[in-house]
Amino acid sequence: MATELVSTVLQVLSQTLQIYSLVLIVRVLLSWFPNLDWGNPVLSTVSSITDPYLNAFRGLIPPLGGLDLSAILAFVALNLMQSLLMRASMIAYAGGVGAYG
Length: 101
Fold this sequence. Notes:
mainly alpha; about 0% strand; elongated
């Protein structure tokens, strides 16, 4: 029972990271349009959700020739974390099934 709960929580966290990845993709794509009004409530919300995460990587990789490559590292880190959560979820679920099944 407890392992199923742990597995479910890990799956929810993984799905949350997947949704965040989609929001991050939208943010990166929107950054290609310099004339957008970031005062718009929707754009402002997307920016406030994603910029703190992206800023952590902007400090590691400076822009090269006007291109901000830090988003690539941010996506790799997010994908790695999501993969680890899914793997841990499967291990927790398999451990619960093996223990009681």
